[in-house]
Amino acid sequence: MAALDGPRFGPKSGGPVKQIVVLLHGLGADGADLIELAPHWAEALPDAAFVAPDAPEPCDMGPYGRQWFSLQDRRPAVMAAGARAAREGLEAFLTAELAREGLPGSALALAGFSQGCMMALYAGLRRAEPPAAILGYSGALLAPDSLTAEITGRPPVLLVHGEADDIVPVQATRQAESALREAGVPVQALYQPGLAHGIDEAGLAAGLRSLRAAFGTGPDA
After folding, report:
1. How do residues 78-88 score in pLDDT, each as one tens digit?
2. Which ranges does the record mark as transmembrane (predicted)?
């Protein structure tokens, strides 16, 4: 399997990297799609490096873009198996990024959109050294039944979902919130009336607050 890579941004300060924020894109997109979040957060996180790796496979549901795993078969067990297989390459990427900067796992945050949210939650909750935070936008929690047995840490999680989402129903995040709370994971959830499958200004602002709180660079407010 080829090593993951993708577009990068920062650190805006021009100095040493103190935090790494990895942005995981959705089905049929690529890293260039989600790296656009970086400038919104970099002003308040000037020492953070942002990287948005391209998923490992060509998307099998359209003529362009990438996928972390196939969604041709959306049975829960099949999707969980796909995430489990994709986790190996993502974990190698995260480990290499931290090692290059000489940073501990606590200097890492994961943010994902849609299928990228599924990967951020699946991989982040199973890392040997948990990330500082996980931000999940418009996604779902895969393999909730195995979480209690497999979870390795309980980093703070932010979930954001539009109530008008017709791609991934908002109920997926409501179920994720419930399962995470049951597993003892600290969760904040933001449900946006009228928002479809996307990220709005309120979601960006909530994400920045979560990142600043996790990295100790600002108030949790």
Report:
1. 999 999 999 99
2. none
